[in-house]
Amino acid sequence: FGCGSSREHAPWALDEYGFRAVIAPSFADIFFNNSFKNGLLPIVLAEAEVDALFEQCLATEGYQLTVDLAAQRVRRP
After folding, report:
1. How far apart are CA 37 and CA 26, in angstroms?
2. Which residue in 21, 31, 47, 69 is deepest, having the highest Cβ count within 10 Å?
3. DSSP-derived pairing of the beta strands 66-68 and 73-75
4. What global pTM score does this model have?
5. Is residue 4 part of a domain?
């Protein structure tokens, strides 16, 4: 996630849209580092876990996740 041109702008756009975290199996190094600098948390999960979350998202209107930093878990509210 976050590779290609204008990588430094990607965290800005996501932040302005209201995202506080991005979940993916991997991130481009520049995007990963810029995310922290811009208050966006990049979360690396196994590809199977990301796929499962994506399927749940597609099946549920208004789907949301909560990132519990203390417990280091991603869960539904």
Report:
1. 18
2. 31
3. antiparallel
4. 0.79
5. no
